């Protein structure tokens, strides 16, 4: 594995079934080679909690592309390597729910890695392995809950883990996009 698609999503509500922003950092050979960020019009109401957490308001997302529109742009990038996220269960579930909600054709399963799980092996002495804690410990700049900053932090944590011998190949899992759950790796197709 030499190409990783580190991504992060922000959501507008506690339903966590739509996106209000997405950030992507592509890592090849321990270098970030491409970045992408966009607000996303979730076409649903925002909760006050999520507005306070992310700083994204309905007015900011109103004229942004919808998920189905943005997917046409990002699908080639998302399908070009192994997906990676920090606390990946969350980001993978939001991605799967958006693909289902917008009835976008996709494979049943895809593979991913979680940099939270990887960081537990690479830096076991940390008090916890939340994104902000790991970033503080490794000196990674973070504007938490900004999707591009969080995706970049995921990329930097991934690079650190690989450099210290925590190989990504030991952390590959499958994700069933139709059933919205983690499954065994193997036989999965890139989205």
Identify the overall geometry: globular
**CATH superfamily caption:** Ribonuclease H-like superfamily/Ribonuclease H
Tally the beta strands: 7
* Count of folded domains: 1
State the end-to-end distance: 16 Å
Name the poorly predicted regions: none
Order of helices and strands: EEEHHHEHEHHHEE
**Total number of helical segments?**
7
Helical content band = 25-40%
- Work out the strand percent: 15-25%
Whole-number mean pLDDT: 95
Specify the biggest β-sheet: 7 strands, mixed
**What class do helices, strands and sheet pairing give?**
alpha/beta
Rounded to the nearest angstrom, the radius of gyration is 16 Å
CATH topology: Nucleotidyltransferase, domain 5
Strand order within the widest beta sheet: 3-2-1-4-5-6-7
* CATH class identity: Alpha Beta
Assigned CATH architecture: 2-Layer Sandwich
Briefly summarize what is shown.
By secondary structure, the chain is α/β, with parallel strands linked by helices.
């Amino acid at each position: 594995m030499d190409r990783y698609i580190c991504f992060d999503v922000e959501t507008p509500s506690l339903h966590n079934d739509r996106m209000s922003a997405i950030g992507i950092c592509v890592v090849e050979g321990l270098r970030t080679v491409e970045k992408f960020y966009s607000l996303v019009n979730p076409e649903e109401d925002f909760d006050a909690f999520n507005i306070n957490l992310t700083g994204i308001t309905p007015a900011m997302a109103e004229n942004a592309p919808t998920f189905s529109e943005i997917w046409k742009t990002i699908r080639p990038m998302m399908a070009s390597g192994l997906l990676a996220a920090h606390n990946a269960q969350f980001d993978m579930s939001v991605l799967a729910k958006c693909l289902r909600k917008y009835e976008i054709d996709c494979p049943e399963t895809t593979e991913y890695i979680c940099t939270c799980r990887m960081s537990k092996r690479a830096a076991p002495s940390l008090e916890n392995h939340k994104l902000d804690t790991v970033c503080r410990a490794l000196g990674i700049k973070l504007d938490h809950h900004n999707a591009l900053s969080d995706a970049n932090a995921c990329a930097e944590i991934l690079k650190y883990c690989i450099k210290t011998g925590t190989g990504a190949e030991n952390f590959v899992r499958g994700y069933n996009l139709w059933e919205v759950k983690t499954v065994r790796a193997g036989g999965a197709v890139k989205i």
